[in-house]
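Bench log, entry 3. Co-assembly request; chain sequences pasted below exactly as received.
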Amino acid sequence: MRMIRSLCEKKFRDELGLFTVEGEKMVAELADSGLETVMIVRREDVGEKVMERISSCNTPSPVLAVVRKPAPASHSASGLCLALDSVRDPGNMGTILRLADWFGLDCVFASPDSVEVFNPKVVQASMGAIFRKKLIYCDIAAKCKEFRAAGLEVFGTFLNGDNIYEASLPAEGLIVLGNESNGISNAVASECSRRLTIPTFGGGAESLNVSVAAAITVSEFKGHGGWK
Amino acid sequence: MRMIRSLCEKKFRDELGLFTVEGEKMVAELADSGLETVMIVRREDVGEKVMERISSCNTPSPVLAVVRKPAPASHSASGLCLALDSVRDPGNMGTILRLADWFGLDCVFASPDSVEVFNPKVVQASMGAIFRKKLIYCDIAAKCKEFRAAGLEVFGTFLNGDNIYEASLPAEGLIVLGNESNGISNAVASECSRRLTIPTFGGGAESLNVSVAAAITVSEFKGHGGWK
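Structure output for the full assembly:
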């Protein structure tokens, strides 16, 4: 049980190559995920106290699975993909994966300093999307170069870009999202071939949450792009 | 200091009519908010240990303000507004307020069983939007009736509605968002005059996070609606 508890920490997830999944629904989805389930612990077998000890949720769920991390995936510069440039909040990362799953994006890339995808809060917020979407850690500036070399555009969201509601958006390309506080880094910004802006409408807010900006941008590409 | 610490709990916020705001940026924005600041506590004055004790953040910020709750606001059935039907997660509520601020919505209504707007996590996630946007707790089904009586439409997001990307969306109306797990309640659903759907694009996800659904819906109304 101590081993399971240790998986709340990245250090031990890395060392053991394992992570945890909690909740009936997510554990049920594991069966179709192709991932190797090492162990399943149920409250009815071990009792409430043990579940509280091994869970990383505030309210421990009735079931927890220990799962082997998949081998790193790969993805060529093709399709419509997201690139996360230093997204640090696990809730945002999980929400963005869920969004990528809903909109059938081809892949999500993340810079090595982004939050780890096997963090229990990412797993939870993704609502199972981590079983279905490829998340690849890599150098985002280099990935932008690859997309451009493949003849595709690289889109960044900035405060001074083209109005996204009036922009012509292709079916393929790379959409870059930046850090919660600092936005897209300079190294990555200089690799963006097009700058997009979600205009404000008389509001006092200075910015949008990154998963909200991701949602609006991806929605524009899938709902209003492609055929423009 | 014990009084400040107690404001992490709703019971004491209600009893004292006070709440806390943390962070340099948010405390600076208080000055223009019209709210009464009762006390400001700075790390440089009280030390790290005290800040840790009174803060509700994992990483205590260098400054914390104790603020008097404003009197409940009111808003007639007009403009473009959101209605939250039992939104429970503080991060979602804060993110939705920030979104409402960015897009200049007129008001946000919330059912009494939604999370409390002065919860420190809501305040934090709103990034100051709680100082600028009206958030009114009320019966959502009754509010829907009011909007319809004023000749406006009430929009709900459902899995079996009209494709939002093809729908004609007016400049004014009420957009209803439902609970994280259960969606819009039956009592409120029956008051919606139009059902909208954000279509999925071959993904495996069963649903979207409520703040993501709010973002996409509001973005459609403001970016593509109004003049249709």
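Chain B has a mean pLDDT of 94. Chain B touches chain A at residues 91, 95, 98-104, 125, 127-129, 132, 164-165, 198-209, 211-212, 215-216, 219-220, 222-224 (CB under 8 Å).
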